[in-house]
Amino acid sequence: MTLKPLAKCEVFELPRISDPRGNLTFVEGERHVPFAIQRVYYLYDVPGGAERGGHAHRDLHQLIIAMSGSFDVHLDDGYSKKSIHLNRSYQGLYVCPMIWREIDNFSSGAVCMVLASNRYDEADYYRDYQDFLREAVK
Ligand code: TYD
Cα(138)–Cα(135) distance, rounded to whole angstroms? Predict the structure, then answer.
């Protein structure tokens, strides 16, 4: 039996260098995440009640980190769903390809940083949930 995509999505603990001057965390591609990092983007100034995401990717691997504040990430591979609350800058949620994701419940001042395995490519997106399900559930 092959592992469903959702089973691969988990919270990774990132290295933490604790220091009285302030803590430090780092992420190296293909070491702390199972992909080479090609792109970084971040969401910030998110108004209360806003929802982001609402799509899936065909091939993209991502690591989602709450750099500041907190938010909830809802994942769905077409077979099952799970929700993860992120609120630590030393934790990253790995999201593999073929996962529908929604992000909500942003705290005030939250910053959501995403490390991605490829450059932006609109052709890699499923923006319609029914289109996604047709491919995800066979
Ligand atoms: P989208 O991925 O839909 O945002 P989110 O998942 O956070 O809600 O992207 C929103 C817009 O930004 C869309 O027009 C595409 C554009 N965009 C880029 O141009 N480059 C990028 O790296 C990303 C992530 C988005």
Answer: 7
